Amino acid sequence: MIATLAAANQWATEHGLSYLSAGIHHRNADAVRFYRRHGYAPSGTSWARRPTG
According to the model, what pLDDT value does residue 18 have? Predict the structure, then answer.
């Protein structure tokens, strides 16, 4: 996974992107720790709902 993050960072840098984001659930403690350890931080809010019908 670390190699994937490194590759994404390299690609983003080469293409002039200003930030990367990771779509993880805030209750997934292992994922939160992993991404924090690699420099990611909370940013914004994601809204969702279950379909009805």
Answer: 93
